[in-house]
Amino acid sequence: MSIKRLHLYFYVVVWNTLWSYCCCEPSDIELDVKAQNTHRLDSLNLLLYTFLLILTVLTIWLFKHRRLRYVHETGLAVIYGLIVGAIIRYAGSTTAVLHMSVEPDDKGREYNQSVPPDTLWLRFPNKPSTTPNKTYAYTFRGEIVDLEENEIDLKATFDPEIFFNIILPPIIFHAGYSLKRKYFFRNLGAILTYALIGTTISSFVVGAVMYGFVQLMPHLNTFTFLDLLYFGAVISATDPVTVIAIFNDLSVDVNLYALVFGESVLNDAVAIVLSGAIQHYSERYQIGSGGFEAPAFFRAVGDFVGFFSLSLFIGALMGCITAMLTKFTRVRDFPILESALFVLMSYSTFLIAEAAELTGIVAVLFCGMCQAHYTYNNLSPDSRTRTKQLFGLLNFLAENFIFSYIGVSMFTFPKHHFDVGFILASFFCAFLGRAANIYPLSFILNLGRKPKIPLQFQHMLFFAGLRGAMAFALAIRNTVSDARQRMLTTTSLLVIMTVIVLGGGTMQLLAWFKIPVGVEEEVEMLHYGGVRNTLVDTSEGSAMNAGSPSDVHERALLARVWREFDVRYVKPLLTHARPTLLETLPVCCNPVARLLTTTEQMTQETQTHSRLDSDSDLCGEERGMGSIRGGSTGGGPLGRSGPHCRFGIHNELPSSAGETQPLLRASSLPPEHGPFSSTFYSCPGPCRHTAETARLPRR
Amino acid sequence: MSIKRLHLYFYVVVWNTLWSYCCCEPSDIELDVKAQNTHRLDSLNLLLYTFLLILTVLTIWLFKHRRLRYVHETGLAVIYGLIVGAIIRYAGSTTAVLHMSVEPDDKGREYNQSVPPDTLWLRFPNKPSTTPNKTYAYTFRGEIVDLEENEIDLKATFDPEIFFNIILPPIIFHAGYSLKRKYFFRNLGAILTYALIGTTISSFVVGAVMYGFVQLMPHLNTFTFLDLLYFGAVISATDPVTVIAIFNDLSVDVNLYALVFGESVLNDAVAIVLSGAIQHYSERYQIGSGGFEAPAFFRAVGDFVGFFSLSLFIGALMGCITAMLTKFTRVRDFPILESALFVLMSYSTFLIAEAAELTGIVAVLFCGMCQAHYTYNNLSPDSRTRTKQLFGLLNFLAENFIFSYIGVSMFTFPKHHFDVGFILASFFCAFLGRAANIYPLSFILNLGRKPKIPLQFQHMLFFAGLRGAMAFALAIRNTVSDARQRMLTTTSLLVIMTVIVLGGGTMQLLAWFKIPVGVEEEVEMLHYGGVRNTLVDTSEGSAMNAGSPSDVHERALLARVWREFDVRYVKPLLTHARPTLLETLPVCCNPVARLLTTTEQMTQETQTHSRLDSDSDLCGEERGMGSIRGGSTGGGPLGRSGPHCRFGIHNELPSSAGETQPLLRASSLPPEHGPFSSTFYSCPGPCRHTAETARLPRR
Asked: What phi and psi, each to the nearest 5 degrees, are found at residue B238?
C-alpha cells in the first residue's frame, strides 16, 4: 500500500487533507495529520535535491571515468536542476495549499505602519462552535505576485536564509581553509587589486551602464541608480568552483591558479560588503530625494572599509582564540571533542559577525585562513584529517546543492520576472564590468610587477569570471519587489549561462590561449620560473619562509615585517612552534612568556629538533601541493588526466597521500613515545628536509 | 561601533525597525532591512546554541580531564541549556515582532473548513496610497495560547521539522552504523523482546494508568484514552547516549552493553511506529464515538507490523543498492565522490521512507546496519575513515544540540503547560511502564535462555531507561492543542530529570549493583563466559562466523540459515567477498554469476588468499571491539578510565587505532600494486589470523 503511495504522493496529500476535513471536529488528530503532511512535503523537497545530488555524483564519476570534460560538476548540477525543475513545473501535480483572504479587524486597524506586519493573528471560528474560537499566528512569507500561481510557491523552494546561514559558510570557510597560502601571498598584491578595486570598478560600470539602458526602456523606470549599483555589486561576485576544478585537474600554472582562486574568494567577500554599503547609503538618504550626496557617499565608503576590516578582525580573532584553546587545553586528547570545538568555533565566527551586523562571509573566510595557519598545527592527527575531510565533503555537497537549486528554481520559483531587454543588457554589462576590472588593472599592475601578468593570463582571468553561489544567494535574499525579482531572474540566468558555457569552455580556452597545462608545481612558466631557482629543496621551502634573496624584491616591506612578526611572536603564542616566546620576547617579559609557553613547546626541541613548527607549517602548505601534484600524475597534454588520479576533484582536500601517511605512521609508533610527544607531528622525508633548510639558517 | 552593537543587539533591531518605519515609503530598501533583521535574529539564535555547544564541549573536556563523572555530556548540555534559557526568559529583552489582528474579508468568508487555512493573503494598503495595494502571504505557525507572551515565540525556538529532518537522522544512522553487530546478534532475541513487546507493554501500561489518573483530575478531562496511549508511546522511547557513554568509558560487560544499546536503538524505532499506528487508529475512527473497535484495533496492529517491516525493507534495500553502486562502479577512485554518494544515499533512505508515509527513523537505522555490513567493505580507505568520522561528529553535535535545546526550550518555548498532577502521574507511570517492560519479560526470557540475564542486569536495564531525543522530538511535533502542550512539558521534564538524575547516577548504580567494570571485551562475566571458550582466536572470531558448537544452542535456526545465506549469496553479491557467486550458485546460473562478480573479486584470491572477505567482515566487527578495548585501557576500578584514552567518548567512532593503521599501511605501499588491488583491504596481524581460523574450515 505504502509503496504505491510513493508514486501517488501528491494526490495522497490532497486526499488525506480533504478526507480529514470531512470529519467534523478539528481535533488534535487532524492537526497531527496536518503536521505530518507538512513534514512529508518537506521530506519530498529534500529528497528531490538529494536525488539530484546523487545523480550529479554518479554522472561526475562517469565523466571522470570516461575522461569527458565538456561539462563540469557544477554545470551538471545546474543542468539536472533545470530538467527536474521543468518536470516539476509542467508535470502539474498540485499541492492543496488552502488559503483565506483576510483584512484587518477592528483591533488590526490600529496598525499604522507602512510595512506589512511580521505576524498576523487570525481569530478562527471553529465551525460547529462547540469550542471557543481560537487565535492562530501566521508569519510573513512575501508578496504574492501572481494570484494564480501560489501553489508552486511551496514546492521545491527553500528559505533564502538557508543559503546564508547553512550553505554558504562551509563553502567560504573551506576556501579559506584550503587556500594555498604560499601562492596566495606571493600574488597578494595582484589579488587584492583585482578583488578590492576591480570589483568596485565592475559594480560601478555595471550600475552606470545599466542605468543608461534602463533609461532607454521606459517600462523599467522603477529602477533607481542605487538599485542598479546594488545589482552591479551582486553580479560582480565571481565563483571559482568550475574553473578551479578544471585548473586542478589539468595542473595549470600555479600563479594563474592563485590569481583566479584568490580573486574569486576575496571578491565574494568584497561584493557582499559592497552591496551592504550600498544598502546603508540608500537607507541613510532615501532615494526619493534623488541626486548624489557626498557625505552619504563617504560614509558608505567608510562603511565598506569598516565592515570589511572589522569582519576580517573578528574572523582572525576567532581563529586565534581557537588556536589558543587547542594549544593551552589538552582537548587534543579527545579528538572528537577537538573536532567539534573546531567546527563550532568556526561556525560561531560566522554567526558572531552576522549578529554584530558585520559580514559573516568575510569573517569566516579569514577565520579559515587563520585556522589553517595556526590551529591546524595544534590539532591531533585525527582532527586534522577529520576537519579537512569534513569541510571538503560539506563544501562539495553545499556547492552542488546550490547549483542544483539554481537550476530547479528557474522553473519552480514563483517570482521570476523574465524581461529580455533587462537580461540582455545585464549580460552585456556583466562582461563589460569584468573587462573593466581585469584589463586596466592588469596594465597598471604590470607596470610595477617583475614577473608580468601575460596577456593570455588576463584573457583567462576575464573568462574565469563565472558567476555562482554568492551572486545567487545575494539576489535571492530579497525578492519582494518587482525590481528585485527581475534581478533574481537575471542573476540566475547569468549564473547558469556562465557556468555552463564559460565553465564548459575552459578547456578549449586554455588550449586557445596556449596556456600550458600539466605544470609541476615548482616548474612554472618560463618567464616566471626564470627569476627563481626552481628546485624544491633549496629556495622554495615555504611562502612564509621567504626563500632565496632573489625574490625579495617581489615582497613588499609590509609582508616581510608581518612574516617576521608572525614567526617570532604570533606562531609561538598560538601554536607549539619554536622559537618559543621565551626566546623571542625581551627578558623583562619572561614571566608572561613562560605562562604562554607550553611544556610541549619547551620539550619538543630535545626530541624533534624544531621540526614541529617548520613541518607543521609545511604540512599546511603541503596540503596545497599535494593537490596539484596529485592532479598532475595524469597530466600532460590536454584532457589526459588519468582516471586513477585521486585528487582530480577540486573539492578533495588532498589529505591522503601527502600527509595522512606520515601522520598515521606517527600514530603507529610504540606507545612508549607517550601520547603527547611531538611524534604526532613527525613528518619524515623531503618535508622535513625542506623545513630545515628553509628555517634553520634564520635562527 | 559594530562591536558595541553586538551587546545592544536586540535594541538595535527594534531601533532599526522603528527607524526605518519613520521614513515614508515601504521601498525595497526597507524590506531589505527587514530581511536582514530576520537574518540577524536567526544568526543570534544559532549563535546561542553554538555557544552552548562550545561550552558543553569545553566542560566535557574539563570533566574528562579531571576525571569527574557526576554529570555527563548530555546532562551538561541540558543544564547549560536550562541556565541560558532562564537568562533569555528573564533578561527581558524584547524583539519587536509587529502583529496585526485580522479577520476573513468578503472573499475569505467563502472558506468553510474546520481547520485553520495554511496561508493567509493580506491585502495590505500602502499608507501614502501612491502605489497600488499589495497582497502578502502569511503561513501558518500555530495557536497563540497566551496573547501576552507572543514575543518569546520567535526567540531561541526552532521548527520541530528541523528535529525530524535534520537532527534525528544522523543520530539514528550512527547508531546503526556503529552498532556492535556481534553482540547485537548474540542477544538479538532478548533485544527484540524488550524493544518490540516491552515497548508496547510499556505504552499500554502508561496509557491505562494515566487514564486512571486523569479520571481523578477533573480539569484534565480533555484527554482521551488514545491521547494517553499516544503519550505512553512517546515516553516509552528510551535514549542510550548518557548510559552508553558511561558504559563505554568503564568497559562494562559487553552483553549488558549490547542489551541496553540494542534495546534503546530499536525501541526508538518501535515507539515512533507505535505512535504512528495509534494516530492512524484514531484517524480512522474518530474518538468522539468512543469505545473500543476491534477491526480498527487490528488494522492498527497491521499498520504497526506493516510500517515497521516496510520501513526496514526500504532501509535494507537502500543499503544494498549503495553496496552495489560502490561495488560495480569505480567511484572508489574518487573518494570524495564516494563519500558524498554514501552520505546522500543514506540520507535519501530516510527521506524516501518519510515521503512514502513510512518511518524514516526505522529505515535509516537498518540502512546504517546494512551500510556497515556490506557497503563499508567496498569503500576506499579514505571514505571509510571519512564516513565514520563524519557521522561520529554529526552524531555528537546533533545529540548535544538536541539536549541543549531541551534545556533552553523549557524556558523559551511559549507553549509550556505545567500541571503538577499530570507531571507527577507521568513520572510514576513512566517508571511503572519501564518496570512492566523489563522484569516480566526478563523472567520469561530467562526461562528459555541459557546464560540467564541476572537480576542486577535487569535493575540496570530498568534504570537505563532514560528518555531522550526521540521522546522530545515526538512530543514537540505537534503542540497546537492544550493536551499536546501538557504532553510536551511533561516529556521535557521527564527527559531532563532522567538524563540528569539517572544519567548522573549510573556510576553509583553500577557500583551498587556490583556490576564489574573494566571488563575486556572477550572476558565476560563468569556465568556468561563459562559457557563459551573465551579465547579470541578460536571460537570468538565473529558473530557472523557462528563459532564453536557450544553456542549453537543459543542461535535460532533462522539466524543460522540467514548467516549461511548471507555468506554464500548476499556478501558475494554486494561486496568483493569470497567465495564468489560463481562458486556458490548452481552451475546453470553461471552467466548471471559471472556478471555479478567483479574482476577484483576474481583476482584477489591469488594475492591475498580470501582475506578480503573475512577481514573486511572482521574490520566491521573490529570497529566495535576497538571501542571497548580502547575504553578499557584506562579501565579497572570505578572511575579510573585514564585521560589519555582516545576512545573515551561514546560518539567517537573508533577508527584510528584498530583499523586505520592497517588501511593506511596498505595505501603507503608502492604504486606497483596498482590502485585497485586488494591491498586496500589487507588487514595484517591478529585480524587476519582470526579470520582464517574462523572461516577457512567451513569452505
From this structure: -95, 160
User: How far is residue B331's CA from residue B663's CA, in Å, rounded to a whole number?
Assistant: 18
Q: Which of A175, A240, A236 is nearest to A209 (CA)?
A: A236
Residues in chain A with CB shorter than 8 Å from the CB of B105 are 101-103
| Residues B630 and B654: beta-carbon distance below 8 Å | yes
Residue B509 sits at the vertex; the CA angle it makes with B503 and B513, to the nearest 5 degrees, is: 150
The three-point CA angle A45-A50-A52 to 5° equals 100
* B170 contact A CB<8A: no
Q: Give B431-478 pLDDT, tens digit per residue.
A: 999 999 899 999 988 887 777 888 888 888 888 888 888 888 888 877
Contact B646 A335 (CB under 8 A): yes
Which of A150, A321, A357 is the best substitution to test chain B (most B C-beta atoms within 10 A)? A357
Alpha carbons A85 and A87: distance in angstroms, whole number: 5
Q: Give residue A305's pLDDT band: very low, low, confident or very high (50, 70, 90).
A: confident
Residue A121: strand pairing partners: A137, B101
> In this structure, what DSSP letter does residue A187 have?
T
Q: CB distance from A64 to chain B under 8 Å? A: yes
Distance from CA of A195 to the nearest CA of B (A): 24
Indicate the residue of B120, B143, B478 with minimum beta-carbon distance to A102. Answer: B120
What is the rounded CA–CA span in Å between residue B134 and residue A116?
9
Grid cell for residue A671: 606507545
- Residue B426 near residue B165, CB atoms below 8 Å: no
Q: CB of B345 within 8 Å of any CB in chain A?
A: yes
Cell numbers describing residue B44: 543570534
Supply φ then ψ for residue A533, to 5 degrees. Answer: -75, 130
ipTM strictly over 0.85? Answer: no
**Nearest-Cα residue of chain B relative to residue A112:** B127
Subunit contact B393:A392, Cβ cutoff 8 A: no
What residues of chain A lie within 8 A of the CB of B101, using their CB? 104-108, 120-121, 123
Chain A, residues 545-584, CB within 8 A of chain B, namely none
Interface of A with B in 90-149 (CB under 8 A): 97-108, 111-124, 126-128, 134-144, 147
Q: Smallest CA–CA separation between A624 and chain B, in Å?
A: 16
Condensed to tens digits (0 to 9), the pLDDT of residues B410-434 reads 887 777 788 888 899 999 999 999 9
Q: Residue B514 — left, alpha, or beta (φ > 0 → left; ψ -120 to 50 → alpha)?
A: left
- Top mean pLDDT of A130-134, B298-302, B348-352 is at B348-352
The model's pTM:
0.76
Count the alpha carbons within 13 Å of A52 in the hemisphere toward its beta carbon: 34
HEC string of B622-652?
A: HHHHHHHHHHHCCCCCCCCCCCCCCCCCCCC
SS3 A146: coil
Do A117 and B98 lie within an 8 Å CB cutoff? yes
B119 forms beta bridges with A99, B139
**Contacts with B557 (C-beta within 8 Å, 6 or more apart), sequence order:** none
State how far the Cα of B45 lies from the Cα of B615, in Å rounded to an integer.
Answer: 47
Q: Strand, coil or helix: what is A102? A: strand
A310 and B355 in contact by Cβ < 8 A? no
Contact B134 A142 (CB under 8 A): no
CB neighbour class for B615 (10 Å; exposed up to 12, middle 13-18, buried from 19): buried
Cell 579510573 sits on residue: B640
- Residue pair A647/A249 in contact (Cβ under 8 Å)? The answer is no
**Residue B66 sits at the chain A interface (C-beta within 8 Å):** no
Contact B117 A139 (CB under 8 A): no
**Quick one: cell of B355?**
515521503
Q: Which helix (H) or strand (E) holds A398?
A: helix A381-412
